User: Fold this.
Amino acid sequence: MSASTRLILQEPFRAVFYTPFYAALARDAFARQGVDVALITVGEPDRAVANLLSGAADLAWSGPMRVIRDHAAAQVTGGTSPLVSFGAVVMGDPFVLMGRGPKPAGFALGDLTRLRLGTVSEVPTPWWCLQDDLRRIGVDPAAVPTTQGRSMRENAEALERGEIDLAQVFEPFASELEARGVATAWHAQAARGPTSYTAFYATRERVAARREAFKGMVRAMAETLAWLHATPPAEIAATVGPRFFEALDPTLLAAGIARYRALGIWMTTPRFPQAAFDRLQAAMLGAGAIARAPGFAACVDTAIEAEALSAA
Assistant:
């Protein structure tokens, strides 16, 4: 691999649960693997797929749900998808149900049928997963009084006004609500167990063409994940904050990082666990987001992970 291999990497949006990627960039982990990474923010996640297909970008990080959805759609028409995931990073659900006041004693998900919940509108995966969790305990998600179509910020404001009882949010909204005394965490969706939320993905053609560079990306994430689990949250926040979260209070950033690490949403190795993939695929099937299950082998390239990490 050339010492100056350049890759264009896409992020869908800026989020605290993507901290491992920002840490890899801030600490020059990709550069140490001989990869010169140019990060672009696409804003609209589906635009990343178009960029990959056109060759405007080399790879992206995002939810494997996009790869699953593309494969499922292709199978319906008898075709194949060119997309493949690899390099698992976020394999736990980063969303939290924040409730007004202290968490009631004995609170359980089944109690949602008696409460007003503001669900996430920016991305579909957290609501798919929560619906799956409800079905698994015998609760029809349709029985939950939900307010849909509002942003996390809007739901946080509605929670403060008392218009809803719980808001489904990720960091830093959760820590911000706690710091202001508006709400407390009633349920962390990470409790559902391994769920594939974020990995790299690219076209198989690009993986073949840039395989050595992509293996470097995997090794860089392995190094970064080891650092992340051994470093105090405040130091992690100081590392990524100035470059990637300039407008966010460092204390809130550190609190969000501490929560996520305690919840175990970040991998200790970038090897993609099939159990996390299967759990997300099941949630998508249950929500009607896909008509069939394309399966782990079709959607995930474990070979590139094995090659990268065996040489690390």
